[in-house]
Amino acid sequence: MTDVAALRAKMYGEDDLSSIPVFAGGFINYGYWRDIPLDGPISEEQRVESQLALYRLVYADLVGAKVVEVGPGTGVGPGWAFAECLPAELHGVDLHQEQVQRCVERNREAVAASGGRLSFRQGAADALPFGDGVADAVVSVEAAQHFDDLGGFAREAFRVLAPGGRLVVATFFVPHESVVGTLPRMLEPFADGVDREHPVPLFAADLAAAGFGGVGVESIGADVWPGLDAWVAQLGAAEGTWPRRYLTAFRDGLLDYYVVTARKSPHPTDRG
């Protein structure tokens, strides 16, 4: 196991990233803060709501869909989405067995009652443990920054999607190749290699090369980074320390948060 792989395994294994104060309620995402006021104290309930809001954004219009979620965290988000967003099926896949176990334990009753419609299993983003054309949607909420092979993920997502299927990915990317190399000097997770400086135009190109059409890239950073910064400041992170530099990196054009969407052609003989 490489050093980076070992760091990620420890972070999502024995260290349980979801337990640190920057997250709340068992989630592991930076939140979507559009409807949460930032001009006063932020409650833990509001922090949880920001993370739910990011899930709402990703799962919009997936009622009745067969969904594969890549990187389901501890299972809080997909468990909520299964109950509230009403997909026909939801199958989470994570590289780390400890996270898979947390997902199963947290959703034990729902999994048992679902008749196989809700499940969690181990697997890699570039080697998804599903057959061809089995899903209506492949989604990922703040996990793709860890993927070492985004091209492999794009190809696997295309493979498991049925014709007409959708891809929705929400996470942070580098806006352009020209700024790669800057973030490791500012942000600890990039310095140790846990997070990758993936340029979003290259990911869009990976999706097109895999056969997807209608690739869309939407910046939502203005509704992510100020809220996260307000929260970590409230937790005691001093200005200038690395947890406060995400907002600086965003304002300097070095990092942004995106929702990336794409669709597999409804005509099996077409690419895109």
TrEMBL record:
SUPFAM superfamilies in alphabetical order: S-adenosyl-L-methionine-dependent methyltransferases
A Gene Ontology molecular function term of the record: methyltransferase activity
EC number(s) recorded for this UniProt protein: 2.1.1.-
Keywords: Methyltransferase, Transferase
Methyltransferase type domain ranges (all copies): 69-169
Record-linked InterPro entries: Erg6_SMT_methyltransf, Methyltransf_11, SAM-dependent_MTases_sf
GO biological process per UniProt: methylation
Cross-referenced PANTHER family: GERANYL DIPHOSPHATE 2-C-METHYLTRANSFERASE (PTHR44068:SF11), ZGC:194242 (PTHR44068)
Protein name as catalogued: Class I SAM-dependent methyltransferase
Source organism of this protein record: Actinokineospora guangxiensis
